[in-house]
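Per reviewer request, we include the raw input and output of the structure prediction for the construct analysed in the revised manuscript.
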Amino acid sequence: MYNVAIIGAGPAGIFTALELVKLKPDWKVILIEKGAKIENRVCLLRNGYKSCPSCKTCGLLCGWGGAGAFSDGKLTLTPDVGGHLVDYMDFSDVEKLIQYCDDIYLEHGATEVVYGRNKNEFQDIERAATLAELKLVHSPVRHLGTEKSLDVLKHMQDYLADKIEIVNNKTVDELDIQDGKIKGFSLSDGTSVQAEFVVVAPGREGADWLSKELIKNGVELVNNAVDVGVRVELPAPVMEPITSRLYESKLIYYSPTFGDEVRTFCMNPNGEVVSENYNGIQTVNGHSYADKKTDNTNFALLVSKKFTEPFKEPIAYGQHVARLANMLAGGVLVQRFGDLLDGKRSTVDRIKSSIIKPTLECATPGDLSLVLPYRQLLSIIEMLYALDKIAPGVASRYTLLYGVEVKFYSARPKLTNELESKEIKNLFAIGDGAGVTRGLMQASASGVHCARVMAAR
């Protein structure tokens, strides 16, 4: 019998454990992770494979550190972006949590450099964005890079190794809920774990599983906006005037035709586009490194759309769009912006004759208009033209669009301000997989918050 059982070793689960060992060092805590230890995580596509082999457990998404382990390691130091924690507590309290978590990252070896802290340095960018009908969100970012991110996560793993029980390569099957109270959960190998408190932090990769488990147990879910879009890749000099000062610019646009919100996400200067496998569905993401540089910069353009009744399956919607791309391309699809505008499918020869060399070489040239719904596709086109006004060259005919990028954090259970289920006592749902956050820093903060709640009880 454990005091606390944590499902998922992403930043939400890790920071829950870090705070618990500080506040309750005598408590018995177990952390279950379906993937490997940080040092054993492997992506075959990055190790010589020419195409994604669709591993049963994706090494990029699962394992210690979660999906963020191999990402760009960007810690956003403001509550304005990266999640919904301000729905559960005061803005100032979220600010304090973020500062607290940032200090912990520094203790475990994070870099000192923060981009975008001095607003005077980018007032000209903000002015240009305003004239282009774009909103620039002030979001200071501590950039780790993938290599440093792995070092920090390894340090956290080693620190916790003798303080809690960490179980890797085990998948949670079902939650054990009796009379409106969590009792524990069963694993796919038939064993069970019993605990007074259970913290569910499965990350975006486990969002679908969590939604199904909660619905099965009568928990009502609230739909977040569905985020569907593309990964844009272009020559690094196009974005350099912005990325050199902000590193990651958070830009929001409301498309003139439909009024939908389109936003930039996860900007990777001199980075690479990567393929991820969500339970057999291949999507795209972007990485950049502290030391290894490419000639390209990539970022996501995501169209946010919130559906109303009777729609109740935002994750399934995103999966459906992604499967269309997989069906046509056998994986990830790539198209030149000029070909999209001309109504032509990109071909291998057209891609080769471009001034941009794709960093995701296994992507199949194709036609995104056969995949993305018209509404989302037109909003993305309009956003690219708006971005071209502040960074000339974004809307070049050679700009590459990879499809599709989907963020599976679109449903969240009804929670108290303590991030506890309103319907199941002692069950806490946190991080991106619970739809509470959508980034490393707020996910970490959600873990600290629920740990403090449990310790206070």
